[in-house]
Amino acid sequence: MVVLRAVSAQSDLLGEAPAQSERQALLIENLSFSYRDKPVLDDVGFAVEKGRFTALLGPNGAGKTTLFSLITRLLETSLGRILIAGRDTREAGAAALASLGIVFQQPTLDLDLTVRQNLAYFARLRGLSLKEAGRRIDRELTRFDMAERARETVRSLNGGHRRRVEIARALLHDPDLLLLDEPTVGLDAPSRKAIVSHVHALAGERDVGILWATHLIDEIREEDALVILHEGRVVARGISADIVARSGPGSLDTTFTMLTTPTRESSAGERA
Ligand SMILES: Nc1ncnc2c1ncn2[C@@H]1O[C@H](COP(=O)(O)OP(=O)(O)OP(=O)(O)O)[C@@H](O)[C@H]1O
């Protein structure tokens, strides 16, 4: 019974694969990837709209980090297509990546530089003039309630504040797409809540498309766009509340468990 439910839910929860449109910050079409002979992503397709928070929800090992590595071109595949703000990452290369901001799972700030120095260094790398860099650094630090910490070294900040600086840095060049790979890992509950709330607000305010990879259901709101990834396949995509409603009574927690805990029989069914 549970097996039948899981299989039928998967087809109901996918709908049509998205087609290219003007408001997309990201479009992924038919993307597949293997590490040597180990398949990790299989025919992945979804879109991230500008001005919207999209959660990429998947258990450990689902393929989220691999997908981010393909979007940023740390990894390559010839199977499928990735468009950032309408530009094909394979064809447009650096021009496509120019509209991308990223916060990696592992922190990448220089601990011995001040907050402002970290941001200024990145802004200069992105080709911003000193004056423009200063203006944007002030804007982002104010946005993240960090203006008063600008002269402190990153080492003196707590984990939550370090994360805020990383997100601020990723926004300095006004990207169309912001990728965040499990950005709340290791943070305490209040810091996690604050970052989730800041980033949700950001999507609408800045008209930036946000792709937030997580395995934590409580970071997702009913109105968010949601892509559920399981064993390298998209098993649900749409608005979170709609996905939950279409999968029967229960919460996102129940839906996620149903879609990502395959029995042997349902695994066979999926692959048939
Ligand atoms: N360099 C690699 N070589 C071989 N297999 C890899 C490599 N990196 C990841 N994998 C495997 O690919 C699969 C997807 O891993 P990936 O890190 O993309 O998943 P994830 O959803 O980001 O998980 P996590 O939340 O644990 O980081 C896993 O089975 C993982 O063991």
From TrEMBL:
Superkingdom to which the source organism belongs = Bacteria
Query: What residues does the ABC transporter domain cover?
Result: 26-256
Name of the protein this chain belongs to: ABC-2 type transport system ATP-binding protein
PANTHER family of this UniProt entry? ABC TRANSPORTER G FAMILY MEMBER 20 ISOFORM X1 (PTHR43038:SF3), ATP-BINDING CASSETTE, SUB-FAMILY H, MEMBER 1 (PTHR43038)
Q: Residues of the signal sequence?
A: none
The organism encoding this protein is Rhodopseudomonas julia
Q: Which stretches are transmembrane?
A: none
Question: Carries keyword Nucleotide-binding?
Answer: yes
Tell me which UniProt keywords the record has, alphabetically: ATP-binding, Nucleotide-binding
Role: Involved in beta-(1-->2)glucan export. Transmembrane domains (TMD) form a pore in the inner membrane and the ATP-binding domain (NBD) is responsible for energy generation.
Identify a single GO molecular function assigned to this protein: ATP binding
InterPro entries noted in UniProt: AAA+_ATPase, ABC_transporter-like_ATP-bd, ABC_transprt_ATP-bd_su_PQQ, P-loop_NTPase
